[in-house]
Amino acid sequence: MVGAKQIILILGILLLTGLIFSTANATLTATKVETIKGEARIDESHSNDFLEYNVTFYNNADDGFYLSTSFLFGKPEFVPVSGAFIVPAKSTATLGIKIYVGVNEAKSAGSPTGKTTYQPLLLFDDNKNQLNISVLLPVRIIYNETTPLYSKVIVSNVAVDQSGQNLTIDPRQPFTISFTINNPIEKRTINPSVTGASGLPETIAVEKGTSTITFSNLQLTTNNPGNQTLQISLPFPDYTVVAPVKIEVQGFSNCVTKEDVSSSIFGKTYTATVTNEGTVATECKVITAISGIEKNLITDVTSDYLSTTTGLEWKMNMNSGDTKVFSYSVSYAPLIAIPFVVIFIGAAIWYFTRKIDIKKELVSAKRHPGFMFLKMQVHVKNLSGDEMAQVKIYEPLPAFIKEVKDFGTIIGTEVKKNNKRTIKWEVDTLKPKEERIFSYTVRTSIEVLGKMDFDPTIVEYVNKQGGKIEASGNTLTIEVE
């Protein structure tokens, strides 16, 4: 049995121990808590995070005091060292501490809204005895386990801040939207949608984890210039990812002119219909070539035109969607009064208004038993005052031609045109009043006597206004005796 002296001795030891702990606790106090990082976020893009604080202690004892810590959740570590921390005697020292938070800790302490709470920092001496010192740390844990979120939005391969940087897009051109998404749950097939554009696929597969989703060849549904917001929506079963992209639709002008010319021996009528198919106002022009003789025969013309040395010109300011018609009419009736005058003036009009002269001739014919060699020349002259571009000359070959033997200084090629064997020459330009000669020698399949017909030479070129023009010469009939 334990005697009375022994009980008193035990109580004395316990009392002395309590006084020591009490004295120890009384000599160490926490004087300041500084929050370095009081928020930790655990979601699809963060599997771990940390909190960081500075806690200042004052040690009133004559000896240094050793500390260690723990936390209700997370894994605390001293900064910059791990393990025990010493507060020197009669001194102040600041304890830097990082508390690492993972998914398990966030599940128990976090919430999607991240409400701020105050959690105690537990302190222990070097004997692992908990100290009676109150240190409360402000903690905000944001935890969202299953919500897939986009981390960045890219339009036409340009990164866009989610706060909404405006991007200029030409509504006439297709564009691309890409964004990175993290899906922490299993692979899902969803039906995306977009407001303000068309071209999305009906369904897409979103893999688990981080992936990039790209929508190509999108087209704006409106051409109206100004600021707009495209909304990309990805509906998951329990959450819809919405990616807003602010854009600025670029305004543009587009003057479209449709010309119509109707001609007869009695006159000519020219009509130009101009439409501004763009989205902003602009100045449109109509420029048409007309000869000086035809100018004197104009009977009706749209007002406010400018007469130039080569034709007529109209200028007008047109809003988006405006359409205007410009025309003139030329009457040859005054010339019909006297038949001879009509013939003369008609020929003069044709002669002075023609742009190109095409002539073909036989240079030589050499007869051989059973075949012949024929040397031909084609003369092409630009009669106009404007340069002709992309000039192509087509020379149809009669059926009795067996082969092309030789060319002159300008080399041609044999092609098929209108199901006929044809020689083709190409020159870049034909300057005003410039003449080119194209020569070739052919061998006939038989020795031809009598008349031989050569179809008209065809010339194609692009005029000053960018129009593609086709002209032809006359049929050439030659006779070999």
List keywords for this structure.
mainly beta, 4 domains, 38 strands, five-stranded mixed sheet, elongated, Immunoglobulin-like, 481 residues
3D structure, described in words:
The structure is a single chain. With 481 residues, the protein is mainly beta. It folds into four domains: 4-143, Immunoglobulin-like, CATH 2.60.40.10; 149-249, Immunoglobulins (Immunoglobulin-like, Sandwich), CATH 2.60.40; 255-336, no CATH class; 354-480, Sandwich (Immunoglobulin-like), CATH 2.60.40. The protein is 11% helix and 57% strand. The chain contains five helices and 38 strands. The chain has a five-stranded mixed beta sheet with strand order 2-9-8-4-6. A hairpin with a 2-residue loop joins strand 21 (255-264) and strand 22 (267-276). The protein is elongated and about 140 Å long.
Using the coordinates shown, work out and report the CATH topology of the largest domain. Immunoglobulin-like
User: What quaternary form is this?
Assistant: single chain
Amount of helix: 10-25%
- DSSP, total strands: 38
**Distance, first to last CA:** 160 Å
Secondary-structure-based class equals mainly beta
CATH class of the largest domain: Mainly Beta
Rg: 47 Å
Percent of sequence in beta strands? over 45%
State the fourth-level CATH superfamily of the largest domain.
Immunoglobulins
Task: Work out the count of structural domains.
Answer: 4
On the 0 to 100 scale, the average pLDDT is: 80
Q: Helical stretch count? A: 5
What ranges have pLDDT less than 50 throughout 5 or more consecutive residues? 7-25, 156-164
* Largest sheet data: 5 strands, mixed
